[in-house]
Amino acid sequence: MSALTASRLAAILEAAGARAGVDGYEVLGGGTYNSLYRVRLDDGGRLILKLPPEAGTPRLTYEGELLINEGEFYRSAGGVPVPVPEVVRLAADSLLMTECPGEPWSGLAGGIGDAEHERLRRELGSYVARLHTVTGTRFGYPSGAVPTAGSWREAFTAMLEAVLADAERFGARLPVTGERVRELVRDAVPALDEVTVPALVHFDLWQGNILLTGEAGERRIGGVIDGERMFWGDPLAEFVSLNLFGEPEDDQALLAGYRAGGGDSGFGGAARLRMALYRCYLYLIMLVEGVPRGYPPAQNAVTRRTAGPALILALGLISTST
What we know:
This protein is 42% helix and 15% strand. A five-stranded antiparallel β-sheet has the order 1-2-3-5-4, with helices on both faces. The protein has a three-stranded antiparallel β-sheet with strand order 6-8-9. Strands 7-10 form a two-stranded antiparallel ribbon. Helix 4 crosses helix 8. It is built from ten helices and ten strands. The protein is α+β, with helices and mostly antiparallel strands. The longest helix is centred in the C-terminal third of the chain and has 25 residues, at 269-293.
């Protein structure tokens, strides 16, 4: 974790032009890469500060300069509008932003009834559709940690190759060799040429990154956060993190909200093939990241039991579709 001191915080706030003083700050949990703090100001305001790991910390290739990705996500999504934090100051060593109201959906899920759950999923679907109306000029991660490209095929191929190289570099245990993944994917990547416009993709929309406000039965989405893994690419990739081990049709309420928001929810054969490629990419990240982050053996074992077979299934779909 990157440590925050009172002097470092004061320097960040001064650089941001903050007029209020600091009343205190506290560490926030939930992050697995960057360090997160809530800053209480003496005028009653509150800000969120995110700090990257210390220099030299082991990381996946795409994780270089993640704060650049996150800042671009908030600035891009805020104009749609989607409820995201407002960037106060973005620098190489920190991201300072406003705090969105609410609590993580993941912590409230047990107290949410079926009707409320479906309404919230429809609301989320409409926000996702809005995100996908925002377009960029190049494909890939804005940070450039993996080089951006003028075509989605080139950008995604580089992203996939980077995580395969990371697996080899860190000695990650995979259920299939990197060469076998490359062999199976090689004939499938022409399907990516159907994607000609770089859309804004969050790519980490699990319930922990959705904040809910309001009383039980009347909750609404108060914030979409942790946009650090965003990229400019195919909107279909979003449905991989929204339905991690399932199909888009498993979440009819979300699809209804997505359609109502103007999103295209048609999933033909070519779309299925592209989603299989994106699943491979996400499952590989899940299987590899635990090594540089030093996850405990029990946690890595759970990931291998879930993401490992899911990776094999996705590769099987690719194999039979090309």
